[in-house]
Amino acid sequence: MKIAILGYGTVGSGVYELLEQHSHIQVKKIWNRPNPDKQIPLWCEDFKQILLDEDITCVVETLNGIHPAYECITACLKQGKHVVSANKAVIAPYYEYFKQLAQDNQVSFLFEASVAGGIPWIHHLERAKKANTISRCYGILNGTSNFILTKMTQEEKNFEQVLTKAQELGYAEADPSADIDGIDILNKINISASVAFNGKINPEELLTCSMRYISQADISYFKQKGFTLKYLGDIQVKGETYEGSVLLNAVDTHSLEGNVFDQYNLVSLVGSNIGTLKFFGQGAGKKATADAIVQNLLDIQEGKKDQQSLPLNQLQYRPLDSHAYVIKSSKKIPEQWIQAKDSHYYQTTYLTTVQVKELLAYLDDPQAVVVRIMNNLG
Amino acid sequence: MKIAILGYGTVGSGVYELLEQHSHIQVKKIWNRPNPDKQIPLWCEDFKQILLDEDITCVVETLNGIHPAYECITACLKQGKHVVSANKAVIAPYYEYFKQLAQDNQVSFLFEASVAGGIPWIHHLERAKKANTISRCYGILNGTSNFILTKMTQEEKNFEQVLTKAQELGYAEADPSADIDGIDILNKINISASVAFNGKINPEELLTCSMRYISQADISYFKQKGFTLKYLGDIQVKGETYEGSVLLNAVDTHSLEGNVFDQYNLVSLVGSNIGTLKFFGQGAGKKATADAIVQNLLDIQEGKKDQQSLPLNQLQYRPLDSHAYVIKSSKKIPEQWIQAKDSHYYQTTYLTTVQVKELLAYLDDPQAVVVRIMNNLG
């Protein structure tokens, strides 16, 4: 099989290097966004050279961001080329569109590396759902935010110090917003929902709160109460309805989630027969992510059939459960929301996700810290 | 697809019940060891009726133990029927024989449920090894022993009390030996090695020590030092050599292993690209184990190809690493083995597995408690 790689950053170059061990998958061309300033092997100047090369039956897309990834994936699928993508930002909104294009052109669109990096998460969702109704997906899905929380907890440093260190180590981007404001996790939860529930959600309906206002004092406050803070994505369905969130959760110090450190991920599914399954591994990193892409290339080579039935079902947002929250705000929270108050920490109890959104809109405090008390980690 | 089920205990009946949801897989006959005293649906008196029924293309074997499972599996494969087995006791010694028979007769021999129950462990070993060299498999592979250690640790009860409770709850057999003396884990490690390394080991060479002599005092001793005791199976390879063990390990209280409670399993692999992957879930239980069997039936229905290349490579036993051990014995350990002594606890350090075997043979104390200090959980 002859392939091309789009993008030659950490992941793209990782795929190129791993494929040197696989003589039956040959990289023929590599394209990067215009004017790369580094030496790229097999570099071709024009994406069209890849598109029109009939030898190339499969394209690996590692460009990041929506454009030009959207145009490249669309063109390749229409041209009858398989596509393997690691790019959650473009898959999350266009999942159904790409899957339909792939079906129409009798090729595969695969994306294991887009969620939880080296963990075979997408593969296992697809496998589990053959014999199970999956009702929930949740977990630690972002290595950068978990690295920051780990160092804040273990080394008692503040957020800014740890973020700077993470940037120096290459674990955080110069603009860390996607990782610490929840966008990255939201994309991964959205993709997981498409696969696990065969369902379409509206990501704007999820309660998504940044983790960037967490302080060392907050971490200590929860530690004293036997909790560790983790930044989790969570989505649950019941029939045609769903709820979901991306926010800081206070988890039991003796939960598995509470003991996942540094940049590692831990992601869980709940199935009707198998109960809770949890998968731990490297959610990012050159070799681990490249491995997920190579696995998808091997799937294509083996002619593995696509499981997805289209169109997706439109799911309706409806809070399925009440949750207890602790909210820290410099502004005063109205009495009717509060169960208890402890310095700046308002403990509200049994609020649904919708009510928390109302409360936050009312508060108008962009730096409020919202923490859900998580007592149901399966 | 029409199938038969051999054995109608927890797992066999679980498969029958789950398959009521799968209209395209029909159970035609069920056979149990002679003279069942309960009402079994679709019961047939004579195994030969199944063997000679040409409608039945696949047989699920949940008989437990070596005989008559060995004869039944052999006969079915020779007759050109696919076999799905949950029976680790017969698979571990006859893995290569069954796989070869299946190849010769162009059918599948699958066994997901035999290791780690509902966790898709075997499936994932097969998937990971397509793109990785796997160097190690280890983890909590036995629910009964983990349940006992959990209750001893959390409720400060002694071994006998907890074993009795586990037997009442159905988590432990009347004769608990397979679970607490390591045979069950040894079988699972042996099967994992066959799959992960394509390798044949001699299970007698592994350092296997019972967990039945552990006391509440031992648990407290390790707890004070920041360790939790877990009963782990572990096998590592390097080239054509291997080492392995089934014994109590003192793991960091903040490791994932240290926070796996009750009857749950957590099993890990180390791959050359993906690093460490860990899988958590129900290692036993009716629905979870039946789910693993149903997944294998779906694999057969989809015509999934068998990955195994035969014959297996004969691996040579050779300690790959030194480990530190703590040994409690009523007998005196010679000075040259000891790094430190603390009441009855002899701390020996950097002993290879072979040396521990020598030491134990020398001691001649069947009730010695051997604990490895595990500082490499990936």
UniProtKB/TrEMBL annotation, chains A, B:
<feature type="domain" description="Aspartate/homoserine dehydrogenase NAD-binding">
    <location>
        <begin position="7"/>
        <end position="112"/>
    </location>
</feature>
<dbReference type="InterPro" id="IPR022697">
    <property type="entry name" value="HDH_short"/>
</dbReference>
<dbReference type="InterPro" id="IPR005106">
    <property type="entry name" value="Asp/hSer_DH_NAD-bd"/>
</dbReference>
<feature type="binding site">
    <location>
        <position position="173"/>
    </location>
    <ligand>
        <name>L-homoserine</name>
    </ligand>
</feature>
<keyword id="KW-0028">Amino-acid biosynthesis</keyword>
<keyword id="KW-0560">Oxidoreductase</keyword>
<feature type="domain" description="Homoserine dehydrogenase catalytic">
    <location>
        <begin position="120"/>
        <end position="298"/>
    </location>
</feature>
<comment type="similarity">
    <text>Belongs to the homoserine dehydrogenase family.</text>
</comment>
<comment type="pathway">
    <text>Amino-acid biosynthesis; L-methionine biosynthesis via de novo pathway; L-homoserine from L-aspartate: step 3/3.</text>
</comment>
<feature type="binding site">
    <location>
        <begin position="7"/>
        <end position="12"/>
    </location>
    <ligand>
        <name>NADP(+)</name>
    </ligand>
</feature>
<dbReference type="GO" id="GO:0050661">
    <property type="term" value="F:NADP binding"/>
</dbReference>
<comment type="pathway">
    <text>Amino-acid biosynthesis; L-threonine biosynthesis; L-threonine from L-aspartate: step 3/5.</text>
</comment>
<keyword id="KW-0521">NADP</keyword>
<dbReference type="GO" id="GO:0004412">
    <property type="term" value="F:homoserine dehydrogenase activity"/>
</dbReference>
<dbReference type="InterPro" id="IPR036291">
    <property type="entry name" value="NAD(P)-bd_dom_sf"/>
</dbReference>
<keyword id="KW-0486">Methionine biosynthesis</keyword>
<protein>
    <recommendedName>
        <fullName>Homoserine dehydrogenase</fullName>
        <ecNumber>1.1.1.3</ecNumber>
    </recommendedName>
</protein>
<dbReference type="GO" id="GO:0009086">
    <property type="term" value="P:methionine biosynthetic process"/>
</dbReference>
<keyword id="KW-0915">Sodium</keyword>
<keyword id="KW-0791">Threonine biosynthesis</keyword>
<dbReference type="Pfam" id="PF03447">
    <property type="entry name" value="NAD_binding_3"/>
</dbReference>
<feature type="active site" description="Proton donor">
    <location>
        <position position="188"/>
    </location>
</feature>
<dbReference type="GO" id="GO:0009088">
    <property type="term" value="P:threonine biosynthetic process"/>
</dbReference>
<dbReference type="Pfam" id="PF00742">
    <property type="entry name" value="Homoserine_dh"/>
</dbReference>
<feature type="binding site">
    <location>
        <position position="88"/>
    </location>
    <ligand>
        <name>NADPH</name>
    </ligand>
</feature>
<dbReference type="InterPro" id="IPR001342">
    <property type="entry name" value="HDH_cat"/>
</dbReference>
<dbReference type="InterPro" id="IPR019811">
    <property type="entry name" value="HDH_CS"/>
</dbReference>
